Amino acid sequence: MASHSDTLVVFFGATAGANGGKLGSDEREIILLVWQIVDLHEKKVGKLHKCHVKPDSLELTDQCKEETGLTLDEIIKAEPLDKVLQQFQQSVSSEVKCLDRNSYTLCVNSPLIIRQALHPEASKKNLVLPECFFSFVDVRKEFHKCCPNAGPAQKLTLTSMMEYVGLPAVSEQVMGVREVMSMVQLTLCILDEPYSNSKTEPVDSETVIRARGLPWQSSDQDIARFFKGLNIAKGGVALCLNAQGRRNGEALVRFINSEHRDLALERHKHHMGSRYIEVYKATGEEFLKIAGGTSNEVAQFLSKENQVIIRMRGLPFTATPQEVLSFLGPESPVTDGGEGLLFVKYPDGRPTGDAFVLFSCEEYAQNALKKHKQILGKRYIELFRSTAAEVQQVLNRYMSTPLIATLPPSPIVSTRDCIRLRGLPYTAGIEDILEFMGEHTVDIKPHGVHMVLNQQGRPSGDAFIQMKSSDKAFMVAQKCHKKTMKDRYVEVFQCSTEEMSIVLMGGTLNRSGLSPPPCKLPCLSPPTAYAAFPTPPAILSEAALYQPPLLAAPRPPQTTAHSPAHTLAYYPPQPHLYMNMNMNYTAYYPSPPVSPSTVSYFSHPAAAAASPVLPQPGALVRMQGLPYNAGVKDILSFFQGYQVSTCSTEGRHRQKCVF
């Protein structure tokens, strides 16, 4: 029956809500798993296993109680899903080994338990499913091959199939046990047919739906996670943009066939975080209209596989390909030279100052990222990691001619290789976090600990840590969640670099989705970018103004006899705490966050003596809320009684008040 395995594992599951044909439609958790092994060669049957599963929400619907016969007391005593899945895998592996077999495949009566219940729930709970749950045999389809006159496979039931072949009904009344025993009998019956031959069905999908109500910061990875268990066709997620080129909360998703599309429609008003998502049918024409590309130049650019994409922002409008190549230098060669560059232009051909660059390996891309905020011409250039999806999104607003849907998948996908710590003691420092991480400290990326401060420069109780891989992040989240630090339990969640970036840039990250940082005032933590200046010139250069922001906990406020009412925190220069500039700042459309408009450094006499890199003792103060007609005289009058010096930067004039 299953041509690629020695054994079948007949598998059944039930949820705390709707079951049968509506299983998974109400997002209720799994409360029952039943399975039994069938040896395909010897046609022998193994022991029947039945496990209750404890859900997070201890509530059973009346329909569930009636159908399953389970009570809340039985469920409370059960193990959670992750433990039951471990038990399942150990039990099946042991039995298969005892039978002297090498492999096994799941056999189900309906794909709903796998696609609509198990995969979505595992995704929400950050569980890693065993590999066996990514392929299965549908007993109805196998029966239809043997008995095509029995009716359409989708309408077949266990009762109707057994009646058709003359098998007696199973007398067992317990839900789950009855279904598994019936499937085993049908399986043995099908094995007796000489033409019995099947292929396992991969968890994949096509045809088009429209998802509406998405958090506007949702990525294609978030959408794929929402439809977990249904494989989306290659390049099958098209995010819809509004007239301004920003995401409007809708997406068109193409699955591999109509069956998977129909299963996707069953997730209408299922939740992404705390928001429910509407799912409707859509047409192929709508998908092509949104997912279509642009010119042959763009198609050729995206057709190069296994490339790392970097986005450049702030290029001079007169910049040529040769100037960009020279800027990147020989240590970061661009793929195919000028053909690996794609300048973003307005419809009339005017340059936007953005460009995308292809590199053949991670090393070249890392070398390019080191050029972040270096000068080309008279402008500093920002470099960020990017993806093929972002290239398409940025250019999509200027597109009119559909591009054949053969765009390759992004070579650099958003991986969840970070963790978020929430509820830290306000006195906690980096050393406390490293101690809290314990043995997992070795898996942290260099300079990968980022403390989050509020707009007042005080610890917020949050921190982000960049791990070496998504697997490492997952393990930390599993083992350290609600572990105690200084008498407080700390919540640990797995997250992506983009999610971390949004919070560090002043946005919010919660169950309601992602909220971007304000576009006019990126509230970094600290509120402005703190950096030690590399050289002590009398007038700061533009390159010196834009150094990587420093994220660290401040020393207590320093006060003097002449201090103004608002005390200032002191951030000593600590280069090892600079934020990792490999962070992807392109987390929200249409471009990376705006550049910092000011740079502040706070000094202290002792620090000035210890740190010769500061040009002079003093403090640079940022003023907000000035009247629009305020001039230098007004500012000097405001600080009457304090010694103030002023200077301006080349190209961009800024007033700095140094005390």
Automatic annotation (TrEMBL):
Stretches assigned to the RRM domain: 208-280, 309-384, 418-493
Keyword hit for Chaperone: no
Location relative to the cell: Nucleus
Matching CDD domains: RRM2_ESRP2 (cd12740), RRM3_ESRP1_ESRP2 (cd12742)
GO CC entries: nucleus
Protein's UniProt keywords contain RNA-binding: yes
InterPro entries per the UniProt record, alphabetical: ESRP (IPR050666), Nucleotide-bd_a/b_plait_sf (IPR012677), RBD_domain_sf (IPR035979), RNaseH-like_sf (IPR012337), RNaseH_sf (IPR036397), RRM_dom (IPR000504)
A single MF term (Gene Ontology): RNA binding
Top-level lineage group: Eukaryota
Matching PANTHER family: HETEROGENEOUS NUCLEAR RIBONUCLEOPROTEIN-RELATED (PTHR13976)
Function as written in the Swiss-Prot or TrEMBL entry: mRNA splicing factor that regulates the formation of epithelial cell-specific isoforms. Specifically regulates the expression of FGFR2-IIIb, an epithelial cell-specific isoform of fgfr2. Acts by directly binding specific sequences in mRNAs. Binds the GU-rich sequence motifs in the ISE/ISS-3, a cis-element regulatory region present in the mRNA of fgfr2.
Family per similarity comment: Belongs to the ESRP family.
Protein name per UniProt: RRM domain-containing protein
Upper taxonomic lineage: Eukaryota, Metazoa, Chordata, Craniata, Vertebrata
